[in-house]
Amino acid sequence: MSDALTASSNDPLYDIQLPVTVVVGQVTLSLADLSKWEADTIVALGVKTSEPVELQVNGKVVATGELCEGQNGPNSLAVRILDIRKDSAHT
Predict the structure, then answer these.
(1) Residue 49 region, left (φ>0) first, then alpha (ψ -120 to 50), else beta?
(2) Distance between the two ends of the chain, CA-based, in angstroms?
(3) Which of 53, 62, 82, 85 reaches 20 to 30 Å from 1, CA-CA?
(4) How many Å is the Cα radius of gyration of the chain?
(5) How far, in Å, CA of 30 to CA of 9, rounded?
(6) Cα 83 from Cα 43, distance rounded (Å)
(7) Residue 8 — pLDDT band, cuts 50, 70, 90?
(8) Residue 20: pLDDT over 70
(9) How far is it, in rounded angstroms, from Cα 91 to Cα 57?
(10) Hey, is 22 helix, strand or coil?
(11) pLDDT, tens digit, 9 for 90 and up, residues 29-69
C-alpha cells in the first residue's frame, strides 16, 4: 500500500462502496443472432483464457488481472491483480 493511500485511509471517503466490474471479453451480435440464444448456447468472446481481464470502476479501467480459483475451492472464481493503472488512482 502506498504512503499516500495509507495516510488517507482514515478519511471517511474510503468507506464508500464502489461496484467493480470484471470484463472478461466482449462480443457484438446482431439482434437476429441474439434472439437465437437458448439454454446451453455458447457465446464465443474472441479472447483466450490466458488473456488478462479488466477491472473497471464507473466504466474506467483501474487494473488488469487474471482469473484464478477463489478461496472457496475449485468452483469459485476470483481475480488476481496483475497491474494497477497509476493514471486512474487519483482521477
Answers:
(1) alpha
(2) 18
(3) 53
(4) 17
(5) 46
(6) 28
(7) low
(8) yes
(9) 12
(10) strand
(11) 999 999 999 999 999 998 998 899 999 999 999 999 999 99
